[in-house]
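Q: Convert this sequence to structure tokens.
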Amino acid sequence: MSVLSAPVPLPLLREQIPAGAAWSLVLRRGEQLRLVALADGANASLLLHAVERPLERLCVPDTLKAQLQARVRPPMVLLSDAGRALVSMTGSSLDWHDALTGCSNQAQVHDRYGPSDYAADRNAWRQSARTGLLDELAKHGLGERDLAPTVNLFSKVAVADDARASVTFVPGHARAGDWVALRAELDVLLTLSTAPHPLDPRPSWAPSGLAVEVSPAEPPGADDPSRTFRAESARALAETERTVRSPR
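A:
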């Protein structure tokens, strides 16, 4: 069979995450998740936990410090608090995903957009990212102690060059059709919320939904961009490969 006639692997999953909702998925090693913004101003607050031991989770400070970044962008790896690569960001239409500000809480949502609850507003109720993430974690036997700082996919913030180093939201960063791809380096529980970014200044509640596609992914070879990005990213991938291949 020629290369041109070789079949393209079918997606393993296709669905949509509603605007202002929460969602979770076990992404297996060797699978890739692609998220596409369905409207302008998208935000996706992301948590990651190792399936085999959920106490191991995404560590945003180590991810940034080890790779000398103040943002997340391709081809970075997202590190756990054990120094392993959980996922690699293999591609994105955006070169900046916020990893500095964390996710929204219910008090912030109430203060900015007014009171809302499920009893009154049903599926249109305005739930914070923190509330949604906790609801999803509970489905997997996890709870408040398993929360950690999030990466806010599709969002950008700017840090002022002054003594206060204040952080401001950059509006108009993500447009409908923008995308990001994450490759699982081990089995991970991926949890996210599509609630607005906590610093989004828009006065009205206007979250964006996301299109989701999961497909098979090639393992990172010796010249994989995530491996060659930094010595630290290469070590994180090597540590994951060593521990996944060897029984504990």
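Residues 1 and 212 are 31 Å apart (CA to CA).
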